[in-house]
Design brief:
- By secondary structure, the chain is an alpha+beta fold.
- It has a single domain, classed as 3-Layer(aba) Sandwich (Chemotaxis protein chec).
- Strands 1, 2, 3, 4, 5, 6, 7 and 8 form an eight-stranded antiparallel sheet that branches.
- The protein is globular.
């Protein structure tokens, strides 16, 4: 699915990288081991192709997800998703809880919601600030489900929805935890995003 020019994709990739960098800085304040967060690839999908990509990436794993809805100059939703095993490993690293501890589930929701809030707000805040557009956010929610249910459970989007997928690698003390950042836009809002990116690129080139 190709809806963006290379220049638009590169610009949005850079915006997200800046946001990820800010998020990593905040997460590093939570743990002793340095966290390196990177977004190597940004891809555009429709709903069906995104499901196929996530199934290929995560196989049939159940996923842990944090979702945050946004509105304003752009509207849609953003999600941070992990295989549940990676989510538990990340929580144990952040909290010091043993991954086999019966208390881990009690702290997992709060911890992952906080991580999702930090990462998603970093990404959306970067896009909003660099494009000089206003956005507001709902409170993040945590849930666990299959790939299919995570993609289709947001009933506010239809077949014209555009999905941006950025793979986020959390590298902590040589342990690599892979999650995905999914930005979900209604088509009209996605078109507005591209228009704003073009305006910014034109302003820079003058």
């Amino acid at each position: 699915m190709s809806l963006m020019t290379d220049e638009q994709l590169d610009a949005l990739q850079e915006f997200i990288n800046i946001g990820i960098g800010r998020a990593a800085g905040m997460l590093n304040e939570m743990v002793e081991s340095p966290i390196v967060l990177s977004v190597p690839v940004l891809q555009v999908f429709d709903s069906k192709s995104l499901q196929q990509e996530l199934i290929k990436q995560f196989n049939c794993h159940r996923l842990a997800a944090v979702r945050l809805n946004f509105s304003g100059s752009f509207s849609g939703s953003a999600e941070l998703v992990f295989p549940t095993e990676s989510a538990s490993s990340l929580v144990s690293l952040l909290t010091g809880e043993d991954s086999n501890s019966p208390d881990l589930d009690a702290v997992k929701i709060g911890t992952l919601t906080e991580v999702g809030n930090i990462v998603i707000n970093g990404v959306l805040g970067s896009i909003s600030n660099l494009l000089k557009r206003q956005m507001s956010y709902t409170l993040p929610i945590y849930f666990e489900d299959t790939v299919q249910q995570i993609i289709t459970s947001n009933q506010s989007f239809d077949r014209d929805t555009v999905f941006l997928l950025a793979q986020a690698r959390f590298e902590i003390a040589q342990l690599e935890i892979v999650g995905d950042i999914i930005l979900i836009f209604e088509l009209a809002s996605f078109d507005e995003l591209l228009s704003c990116i073009d305006q910014e690129l034109n302003a820079i080139s003058r």
